[in-house]
Amino acid sequence: MPPAKRPASPLTPFTPLDFQLVLLRRMADHNADLVEDARHALGASIADMREANRRWQAMRHAPRSRGSVARYRSILGEPESVTPRRIGDLSCEAFLWPVPLWPDLRFEVLVAPGGVAWNEWLVRAPGAPSPELRALDDLTPWSCTVDEAARAFAPARPLEGSAPTRWGLAFTAPDGSGVRRDCTAEFTWGLLQRVAVTGP
């Protein structure tokens, strides 16, 4: 059993482990069993996860809070890559950091001119194979990212998430018998959490 962690003080560094616990904390509402297994793999307790989330929120809302990219650099180190990206009429830069809990994923921060971060989520790592998504049965929790589901079941319609770190998609997908169903999918930090069939 891992040694118990000491309570964090204001001077205790916020580490990549703490950041992964923040990601998990937001996913626990939908997939408690997966989160519990991941938490055990990280050697962290429920109290550790709650404390990491509390400190994260305090950092984000502090009066002198640093910008998103500076905050992630201080926690995760230098990004693995920084690449230009164009989305519609917007030119931006994509900063990617590895996330040990999900080796095939990267944490992506999209930064617009002026240094404003406008999107922060998990994406597939460059060069990592994307999952084969053909039907509803393939859409299991944590199996894919927002952009992978949107591409597989195009045209997908974005939906407003139920919280700042959540996104939704509406689309149609075949069920096990090949009948196409209207569905909605919910993602947390860009990773699939659950799918609901909304139509006949």
Automatic annotation (TrEMBL):
The protein's name: Uncharacterized protein
